[in-house]
Amino acid sequence: MKNQIKTISIISLFAAVFSVSAAQRDITVTAEIDPTVDITLADGSPLPTTATMQYLPGKGLADYSEQVKLWSNTADRDLIVSLVNAPSLKDSNGANTIPLKVTLNGSALSTTSSTLTFASTFPHGVTNGSSAMPLVISQANAGAATTAGSYSGIVSIVVAQAAAAQP
Q1: Beta carbons of 161 and 77 less than 8 angstroms apart
Q2: What pLDDT sits at residue 79?
Q3: End-to-end CA distance of the chain
Q4: I need a labelling partner for 42 at 20 to 30 A (CA). Which of 12, 66, 86, 127 fits?
Q5: Per-residue CA distances from 74 to 5, 21, 46 (Å)
Q6: What is the strand order of the sheet 157-161 is part of?
Q7: What's the predicted TM-score (pTM) here?
C-alpha cells in the first residue's frame, strides 16, 4: 500500500511537471475559395501579393511580368476578365500618380469586361488549366518620373465565368 502511494505521488509529480512546461500554439488558417475559376502563376502556385517595379533613371518603370494560367471547373464556358479600377501608383503623400497598364496574353485589360473564349483559352481542356500566358503590368505612359518618392498601388484583376456555354 505504501509503495502504491509512493508510485501515485511520483506519477502525479511527473504529470504536474509536464503540464506546466507544455506550450500550445494556435494557427488561424484562411482560404479564398471560388469553386468555378482562378488565376495562378503558370506552375499553379498563387499569384504574389506584392510586385516591385524597378525604376530606371531617364526611362521610367520596368515592366513587371509573370507567366500565369487561368483555371475553370466547367469545360464549356468562356471567361470574363476585367480590372476593378484603373490601376496606378501613388506616392506616399497621394499627390503624384503614375498610371499603369495591365495586359493579359497581349490584350489590354480595363474596367470593361473582356471575353476569353473557352476554345482559345483552354485548347487542351480544363484539367491542367489554360495555356501559360503573360500577365504584364507596365507604366501606361513611358518616360521618366519627375518626383522622387515611394510609390504604391493595387492592381485588382477579376476573372469570372460566363453565365452560359457558348454554342
Answers
A1: yes
A2: 94
A3: 87
A4: 86
A5: 69, 52, 20
A6: 114-116, 79-83, 157-161
A7: 0.78
Residues 137/102, Cβ–Cβ less than 8 Å: yes
Q: Which of 80, 51, 54, 75 is nearest to 157 (CA)?
A: 80
Could you tell me if 50 and 23 are in contact, meaning their C-beta atoms sit under 8 angstroms apart? no
Residue pair 109/134 in contact (Cβ under 8 Å)? The answer is no
Residues of the chain with pLDDT below 50 are none
What is the per-residue pLDDT for 27? 87
> Which structural domain range is residue 51 located in?
37-161
Tens of pLDDT, residue by residue over 18-38, are: 556 788 888 888 887 777 899
Q: Which amino acid is at 131?
A: S
The torsion angles phi and psi of 89, rounded to 5 degrees, stand at -105, 140
The answer to whether residue 30 is domain-embedded is no
Residue 87 in contact with residue 102, Cβ under 8 Å?
yes
CB distance 16 to 134 below 8 Å: no
Question: What CATH number is associated with residue 45?
Answer: 2.60.40.2040
66 is a domain residue: yes
pLDDT of residue 33: 78
